[in-house]
Design brief:
With 151 residues, the chain is an alpha/beta fold. It has 4 helices and 6 strands, in the order E-H-E-E-E-H-E-H-E-H. Helix 1 packs parallel to helix 4. The structure holds flavin mononucleotide.
């Protein structure tokens, strides 16, 4: 089983930090969305899709990438995000797109990420230092669980 992680992380590289520890744990290849082609996925069985949340949505480059994917069979996907709120609700839209393309969704992970978006930037933003070591450890534990089951 080979694993790949594609991610969009444009604000403070918060999602990239999570993507890196997950990739280490899974032994996955790590590709920023700007360098990913739909054909990149061919060689992988387990694929992680990660993004920061911007206006309650995953970054449009990641969504457009998923929309451009052909139908697949036998591929598993997991979804992760960082956001101001740290909630998982924003995963519903990418999850639906992936399921429509034939992926089976095997996990979700989200945590808070530092943001200087909006007026709070005058005060250093919110969630300063997040994802922190505790968040990254949770991401490692999540990835380890996937590794034990699927790799
Ligand atoms: C333009 C913009 C819009 C954002 N919208 C939301 C939002 O709707 N909900 C939320 O919880 N966080 C929001 N955030 C905060 C980001 O989701 C958070 O900082 C995230 O960790 C950014 O990830 P990145 O550093 O990987 O880009 C927004 C940030 C920016 C810059």
């Amino acid at each position: 089983m080979k694993a790949l992680i594609v991610y969009a992380s444009v604000h403070h590289q918060n999602t990239e930090k999570v993507a890196k520890v997950m990739a280490e744990e899974l032994g996955a290849d790590l590709v920023p969305i700007g360098q990913a082609q739909p054909s990149t996925l061919t060689a992988y069985d387990l694929i992680g899709f990660g993004s920061g949340v911007y206006g309650k949505k995953f970054h449009k480059t990641l969504i457009q990438f998923v929309e451009a994917l052909p139908a697949v069979t036998g591929k598993r996907a997991f979804i992760f995000s960082t956001s101001g709120g740290g909630e998982i609700q924003t995963h519903a839209a990418p999850k639906k797109l992936l399921m429509n393309r034939g992926f089976s969704i095997v996990g979700d992970f989200s945590c808070k990420g530092w943001t200087t978006w909006g007026p709070l930037k005058l005060f250093g933003g919110t969630n300063k230092g997040r994802p922190n070591e505790e968040d990254l450890e949770e991401a490692r534990v999540f990835a380890r669980g996937l590794k034990e089951k699927y790799i």
